[in-house]
Each structure stands twice: as structure tokens, then as C-alpha cells.
Design a protein that fits this description.
binds protoporphyrin IX containing FE, 13 helices, single chain, mainly alpha, 299 residues, Globin-like, 2 domains
């Protein structure tokens, strides 16, 4: 971990830079409200940051952000200042803010402050020195803030990063293996369904026409769903998304087959009504899931 002294050396931040930033203090004070307005207009223009702002104490937050802005021009850049910057990264991680938005909003702050200098200083040389000092202090801020951000995120590790990444990789491979076994099992079951279909057709030739045709139709329906199921699994293996609708479809088809057989068996009315009722419920579930998928394609 670097000290403020290290940081000043690495960024070639001189005592003259301190003087220049201090000289900007009255201008910053004058434009503090404008800074705050533009900063929050920007944050409210993005859905991700708006969400965080809406769940925070807005007056307290803007006081903290304004205070940070004014400290840029306070002329005191010691280890105490560095601790303050370190805390910011921790606070942002706690708030669930991605470091990406800190970088992006820092860009806005940079543009705002440099524009302020351009508007108020006519001397080219003076403007260049002031701009350089501002660039340095903002980059130093971003440096410390993002380092402490990473440190805070690292703390989220449970045992050790190496062990955890090994475990995650091993589990991923295991799941992939299971999926592969599932596809093979599905292929095996599909073959059995083909045998069932042939068996049903044989019934037709044996003279049991009605039973043969209805059972064959049921087996065909199942075969069709097996194809869909395998297709879905293969897509899943190739990294596609899992489609729950196919599974509901399979159960629906199995129910339809059961109803066909139940009619042939002349089951009592209660059994048939139970099967029909289950089919109706499954139909409603299928409809609702497909509706949800249309509205939220990620479901
Ligand atoms: C230039 C970039 C930014 C700077 C310099 C900055 C500065 C700060 C500072 C100084 C604090 C107080 C830390 C403490 O002492 O506890 C803070 C906290 C916070 N900031 Fe930022 N911030 C920046 C960007 C953002 C962005 C983009 C958001 C998005 C909404 C945000 C939301 C917050 C929240 C929620 C807190 C925590 C408040 C709490 O602890 O309750 N900040 N920030």
C-alpha cells in the first residue's frame, strides 16, 4: 500500500500544484451548487445510479459528495486525506455501486472543473498549469478510490480465491458432464419410445384398430416432445438458455397420452375428470409462462 508521499511522487504532484489547487478554492466555492446540480443530473440520467440514489439518504449523500469536491481545493493532501479517499471505495462497495460508474462520473467531474478553469482564466499559461494540477489530483483520487474498491471486493472471498475458482470450475465441469449424461439418457429413452410406437402399430395389425391408433398417436406425441427436449438440452450444452416451456410441454403431452389411454380403458368418470382437470391447469401454466417469456425474454 502506498503512502500519500509515494502517490505525490508517482504523479509528480508538486507544492506548486498544491498552491494552484488552493487558488481555485474561491471559484469552486462559488460554483459548488452548479457542481452538485450537474453531478446529480448526470447520476439521475442513468438507471443504475438512480436506483442507488433512490435507496440512499439524498441530502446526506449530496453533502458528502460536495464535501469531497471542496476538499480537492483545500490544499491539504496528507495521509489523512488519503484515508478519506480510501473510505470512499469501501462506501461505494457497500452501496452496491459498480466501479465503472465511479470512473464515468469522475469523467464528468473532470469536464466540469476544466470547463470552469477555461471560462474564468484568460491567460493560456496559467490555464495550462491549473488544468494540469486538477488532472493530477483527480487521477490520484481515482487511483486510491479504485484500489480500495478492489480491496473491499477481495474481502468478499470466503476461503481463498484459488480454492474458490477451482471449486467453481470443477462444479461447472460436473454440471456439463451431467447435462451430457442427460442428453444420452434422453436419446436412450427416445429409442424406447420408437419401440413403443412400433408395438402400438402392431396392435393395429392384430385387429385392435382403435387401441392401436390412439396409442400410436400418444407415442408419436411423446417422441415429438423428446426431440424438443433433446434439442433444448443440446442448446443448453452449447451455452444457450434453458427453456422451461419445453418441460411443461412434455408433461402436457404425457397427460394427453394418458387421457387417450384412459378413454380406451374406459376408466371411471372421476379418473377422467381428474386427468382433464390436471391438463387444464397445465395448459394455464403453459400460457402464463409463455406470456412471461414474451414480456421478459430472459425468463
Ligand atoms: C467522482 C466520483 C465519486 C466520488 C468522488 C464520490 C465520493 C463519495 C464520498 C466522499 C463518499 C463518502 C464516503 C465516506 O466517507 O463514507 C461517498 C459515498 C457514497 N457515494 Fe459516492 N462518489 C462518487 C461517485 C458516486 C456515484 C456514481 C454514486 C452513484 C449513485 C455514488 C453514491 C454514493 C453512495 C450511495 C455513498 C454511500 C453513502 C453512505 O455511506 O450512506 N457515488 N461518495
Amino acid at each position: 500500500m502506498f503512502t500519500m508521499q509515494n502517490l505525490r511522487e508517482h504523479y509528480r504532484f508538486t507544492d506548486e500544484d498544491t498552491e494552484r489547487l488552493l487558488s481555485l478554492q474561491p471559484l469552486a466555492e462559488e460554483n459548488l451548487e452548479r457542481f452538485s446540480r450537474e453531478f446529480y443530473d448526470y447520476l439521475y440520467s442513468l438507471p443504475e445510479t438512480t436506483k442507488i440514489l433512490n435507496s440512499s439518504n439524498r441530502p446526506r449523500l449530496s453533502e458528502m459528495h460536495n464535501n469531497w469536491f471542496m476538499l480537492l481545493f483545500a490544499g491539504i493532501y496528507d495521509n489523512h486525506y488519503m484515508n478519506h479517499l480510501t473510505r470512499i471505495g469501501h462506501a461505494h462497495v457497500r452501496a452496491g455501486l459498480s466501479v465503472h460508474f465511479v470512473n464515468a462520473s469522475m469523467n464528468q467531474v473532470r469536464r466540469f472543473t476544466l470547463a470552469l478553469i477555461d471560462e474564468n482564466y484568460s491567460d493560456r499559461e496559467e490555464r495550462r498549469f491549473l488544468r494540469e494540477a486538477v488532472e493530477k489530483i483527480l487521477d490520484m483520487n481515482l487511483d486510491v478510490m479504485s484500489t480500495s474498491y478492489r480491496e473491499e471486493e477481495m474481502k468478499k472471498v470466503f476461503v481463498s480465491r484459488k480454492v474458490e475458482s477451482f471449486l467453481i470450475k470443477a462444479t461447472e465441469r460436473f454440471t456439463y458432464g451431467l447435462n451430457l449424461a442427460l442428453v444420452l439418457a434422453l436419446a436412450g429413452v427416445s429409442l424406447s419410445v420408437v419401440t413403443l410406437f412400433v408395438w402400438d402399430i402392431l396392435h393395429i395389425f392384430k385387429g385392435d384398430m382403435e387401441k392401436g391408433i390412439l396409442s400410436a398417436l400418444g407415442s408419436l406425441l411423446i417422441l415429438w416432445m423428446m426431440i424438443e427436449l433433446m434439442d433444448n438440452e443440446i442448446k443448453n450444452l452449447k451455452g444457450g438458455k434453458f427453456n422451461i416451456l419445453v418441460f411443461i410441454g412434455v408433461i402436457i403431452v404425457a397427460m394427453i397420452r394418458e387421457i387417450l389411454i384412459s378413454t380406451l380403458r374406459h376408466d371411471d368418470l372421476t379418473t377422467q375428470a381428474f386427468l382433464a382437470g390436471t391438463l387444464l391447469i397445465l395448459g394455464v401454466v403453459y400460457y402464463l409462462v409463455s406470456l412471461a417469456q414474451k414480456e421478459h425474454p430472459k425468463v
